[in-house]
Specification:
Layout (H helix, E strand, L loop, with lengths): L19 H5 L8 H8 L3 H6 L4 H8 L1 H7 L3 H19 L4 H5 L1 H4 L5 E4 L15 H16 L3 E6 L7 E4 L5 E4 L11 E2 L14 E6 L2 E12 L2 E7 L7 H4 L10 H21 L6 E5 L6 H11 L4 H10 L1 E4 L10 E3 H8 L2 H4 L4 H6 L2 E6 L2 E7 H7 L3 E4 L2 H10 L15 E2 L6 H4 L2 H10 L11 H4 L7 H29 L4 H6 L9 E6 L15 H8 L6 E6 L7 H15 L7 E4 L4 H10 L2 E4 L11 H7 L4 E4 L3 H5 L5 E4 L8 H25 L8 H17 L2 H44 L4 E6 L10 E9 L8 E9 L2 E6 L1 E4 L2 E7 L7 E8 L14 E2 L1
Parallel strand pairs: 1-2, 1-9, 2-8, 9-10, 10-14, 14-15, 16-17, 16-19, 17-18, 19-20, 20-21
Antiparallel strand pairs: 3-4, 5-7, 6-7, 7-8, 11-13, 12-13, 22-23, 23-27, 24-25, 24-28, 26-27, 28-29
Helix pairs in contact: 9-31, 11-12, 12-13, 13-31, 22-26, 26-27, 27-30
The chain binds pyridoxal-5'-phosphate.
């Protein structure tokens, strides 16, 4: 049949359970096991076959079954309780936001969050890994906190790929066409004045002269809305219909078009749906083109390009996630010309001025060539930027230091908010119930409250151990079933299939390792000394077993080779049944593993793990983290809540680093983790181990909750940007205009400024003595009040900045007291100064004497 369209007809639900449909279309259920049970109970097999998708389950089960449960008192009781919880959640008035962040909702218009990928649930595979989980979790906590918040993303109808291993353990990829009509998304409708249902919402984006139509879908995540863009509509050409087919597929040409659709289409979608926003959050450089459309709007409203740019950037936050320079998308100018060719005209500017805002010189084929960098553009188009952990903030300041030449690395204006994870999405039901016995009734609303979590220490050893056992047995069953399916598909012998039934020992110390198989994550580090590993795994008193899972990007052959190596090791006699690798790592596999294992392992090559979040999810569930001191773990590790791998340092020689880390990993397993796990006290319990488990739960749940993370974003960035943007736009963009003009004037004059400085420095001075520093400035016509001339003193890591005072005629001077003893280095520099700058380094103009 030639399908011209599809329509879903949901069953007519019996009145007693009529709200199952409404609930199915709100991803509130994705972090609420009690709500999920209402659907899994209808038909467990259907529920599992269709990736725990409530909409699909309702479609499949049939009227008879629905009528049956509608007359089942036990079911109805659960139904009423779950819906009462849902209503209480949706109608809550005293949310965190209503008491803490009113400015965002009242004076402002809320936050618009743009991300290329979102992981909300396994039935909606529009994510590849940690970045997506982070974005999905961010939305869920924005909902929990009651923030005025809208997310924008793409509805990839073939999603990311499904991973299947062949019988040699090589990763294959399949792409299934999602049937959107069976997913918990709905076509968005244009809002209407009179409240009637509007037409299906569409916007269009012009790329290379083609008008590409995007259909808008709505995904409801608790209280917040997500708008998803989809180019697969009949009006588009065959090629254009495929633009939103796959996440991270194709070449640079496809990517740049997807970024244009996300950024430009996303802003148009917000406007079409009449959703206001006063703060815009770019989650990774993919979203940077949102600035183009927002500047275009301002230019169309009569502003010049510079004013428009100031106004747009004032309201924008950029979060970078990439700790490797090469991981940032950057385009050669010929490619950029093809896709952005008509933008300078639309923005009333020149190609040179626009490209300069994104310029990064690359060393491509041994030639230095300029490129259009998405991350540079994002940095220039925002007035606040952050990395995703303390260490990653530092690494990012180093990577982008070249944009702020003359600034010390620590002065680069990129801060950090350490990532978190959405506790309830990953917390196993037995733990939720157990925590509920000691925590206050409203604990799920105060997840970031450190003090509150202390009560978990009161949970008796036996209860804590029992809850873990339930989870672990479930995880082992899940692993066995998954491996069995894989073996059957690959035509394995009956004996091998049967052997899958006995994989892993639920009584043995079980370590999980699952993540994207990017090579820097060193998935095979464990196998550096296989003889030693064999002794650890096969220790008769203290056996250790490992479960691996993870996808490599389809184009990443070294990553796929890692998967194959683990697969092969898992087939060797010494490791059979004790090292297992699961296929198709997704949110479902992730949940089973973080909930069921005893320890979570992570051994990236420091400092390349920007944050990592899977270890947080494991710790939420009492599986302490065992990891390289990178990303979040440098901050999270407190000596009692898990174990480090290696030291807090980097190495010049990667081989040496791998050896050192592998050695540390084995030794900690042998000397610390296994002995503690298997120690028994007089009561037959393992109190020492459970103390570590408690410490992990109590310390990691609040500090690395997504709720803490989103609150940090609100306080550190959203609220200040909201204020800033209102100020800049006051009086018809008066400040934006004067700031834009001022910057242009400064940039024009800057090449002509000059600075000479001197200091009378004796070889040594006593603490408290003063040193006089003076400078002679040629200001090239820039007024004194627009310049900051300062002495910079470095003592070790400390930087002391003392402004010089103008004496007239370009002469500046100051006496600098030297309070503390030590070796000081002196310098004098100057930079433009203006009260409305987000910081002194905003222009990246710094001149040293
Ligand atoms: C949490 C999660 C990740 C992130 O893993 P890290 O190792 O912390 O980067 C990736 N994929 C899935 C499915 C996850 O749930």
């Amino acid at each position: 049949m030639n399908v011209i369209g599809k329509v879903t007809v949901l069953p007519r639900l019996p009145a007693a359970i009529s709200r199952l449909e409404e609930l199915a279309y709100n991803l509130y259920w994705s972090w609420t096991p009690r709500a999920q049970e209402l659907y899994s109970f209808l038909d467990e097999a259907v529920w599992k076959r269709f990736q725990h998708n409530p909409v699909r389950t309702l479609l499949e089960v049939g009227d008879a079954r629905l009528t049956e449960v509608a007359a089942d008192p036990a079911y109805l009781e659960k139904y009423r309780a779950a819906l009462a919880d849902f209503d209480a959640y949706m109608n809550k008035k005293d949310t965190w936001a209503s008491t803490h962040a009113t400015e965002l909702g009242e004076a402002g218009k809320g936050v618009a969050y743009f991300s290329m990928e979102y992981a909300y649930h396994e039935c909606l595979p529009i994510y590849s890994g940690g970045l997506g989980v982070l974005a999905g979790d961010h939305c869920k906590s924005a909902s929990d906190l009651g923030l005025p918040f809208t997310a924008v993303g793409m509805l990839f109808r073939q999603g990311y790929f499904t991973q299947l291993f062949n019988k040699d353990g090589w990763q294959g990829e399949t792409y299934d066409e999602l049937d959107l009509t069976t997913l918990p998304v709905r076509p968005a409708k244009f809002p209407t004045e009179d409240g009637t249902v509007g037409d299906e919402a569409r916007v269009s984006v012009r790329i290379m002269g083609r008008e590409i139509i995007l259909r808008l879908w709505t995904l409801q995540v608790g209280r917040i809305r997500v708008l998803l863009l989809d180019s697969n509509v009949a009006e588009n050409s065959e090629d254009d219909r495929k633009l939103t087919a796959r996440l991270y597929g194709g070449n640079q040409e496809l990517r740049i078009q997807q970024y244009l659709l996300l950024g430009i289409g996303g802003v148009k979608a917000l406007r079409a749906m009449k959703i206001g926003s006063s703060v815009y959050h770019m989650n990774e450089g993919h979203a940077a083109f949102m600035a183009l459309e927002r500047i275009r709007e301002q230019v169309a409203a009569g502003h010049d390009f510079r004013t428009a740019t100031e106004a747009v950037a004032a309201a924008t936050l950029f979060t970078t996630h990439t700790p490797v320079p090469a991981g940032n998308d950057a385009y050669a100018y010929d490619l950029t010309d093809r896709y952005l060719g008509d933008w300078p005209t639309q923005l009333s500017t020149t190609r040179a001025e626009l490209y300069e805002l994104a310029r990064q010189d690359q060393n491509w084929d041994n030639q230095v060539v300029p490129s259009f960098s998405m991350s540079v553009f994002a940095l220039r188009m925002s007035r606040a930027a952050n990395g995703v952990s303390k260490l990653h903030g530092e690494v990012s300041r180093g990577i982008w230091n070249f944009l702020y030449q003359g600034a010390e690395p620590e002065e680069v204006p990129i801060g950090h908010v350490t990532n978190g994870a959405h506790n309830l999405t990953f917390l196993a039901q037995p733990y939720r119930e157990l925590f509920g016995t000691v925590l206050p009734a409203d604990w799920t609303e105060r997840l970031e409250d450190r003090e509150m979590w202390e009560a978990v220490r009161q949970i008796p050893d036996a209860d804590l151990a029992a809850a873990k056992r339930v989870q672990k047995v479930e995880m082992v069953d899940f692993v066995r079933e998954s491996v069995k399916t894989q073996l059957e598909r690959n035509g394995a012998s009956a004996a091998d299939v049967a052997a899958a039934e006995t994989l892993l020992d639920p009584g043995a110390l079980t370590i999980g390792f699952a993540r994207r198989f990017a090579t820097y994550k060193r998935a095979t580090l464990l196998f550096r000394d296989k003889a030693r590993l064999a002794r650890i795994v096969n220790n008769p008193e203290k056996p250790v077993q490992f479960v691996f899972a993870g996808k490599a990007h389809p184009a990443d052959n070294p990553g796929k080779a890692f998967i194959q190596e683990i697969f092969r090791v898992s087939q060797e006699p010494e490791f059979r049944g004790k090292i297992v690798i699961l296929e198709n790592y997704d949110m479902n596999v992730a949940r089973h593993l973080v909930q069921g294992v005893d320890v979570w392992m992570n051994n990236p090559r420091r400092p390349l793990e920007a944050s990592g979040t899977s270890g947080m999810k494991a710790s939420f569930n009492g599986a302490p983290n065992f990891s390289v001191l990178d990303g979040w773990w440098v901050e999270g590790y407190d000596t009692r809540n898990g174990w480090p791998i290696g030291d807090e340092r980097e190495y010049a020689d990667l081989n040496v680093q791998d050896d050192a880390d592998a050695f540390s990993l084995y030794r900690t397993l042998e000397d610390a983790i296994a002995p503690l796990y298997y120690a028994q006290d007089a009561e037959g319990q393992n109190h020492g181990w459970l103390e570590t488990v408690r410490q992990a739960i109590v310390t990691v749940n609040p500090e690395f909750s997504m709720q803490r993370q989103v609150i940090d974003y609100v306080q550190k960035y959203y609220l200040p940007l909201n204020t800033r943007s209102q100020k800049v736009q006051e009086g018809g963009d008066a400040l934006a205009k004067s700031l834009g003009d001022w910057k242009a004037w400064i940039r024009q004059q800057w090449p002509f400024v000059g600075l000479q400085a001197s200091a009378q420095l004796p070889a040594s001075v006593q603490p408290g003595e003063q040193v006089t520093v003076s400078a002679q400035v040629n200001s090239a016509g820039i007024s004194d009040s627009d310049l900051r001339v300062e002495a910079v003193l470095k003592r070790g890591e400390h930087i002391i900045r003392v402004p010089l005072v103008s004496q007239g005629q370009g002469r500046y001077e100051v006496s600098v007291p030297l309070q503390d003893s030590g070796l000081y280095s002196f310098g004098v520099r100057m930079m433009p100064e203006h009260a409305a700058l987000s910081n002194e380094f905003e222009l990246g103009l710094i001149k040293w004497a």
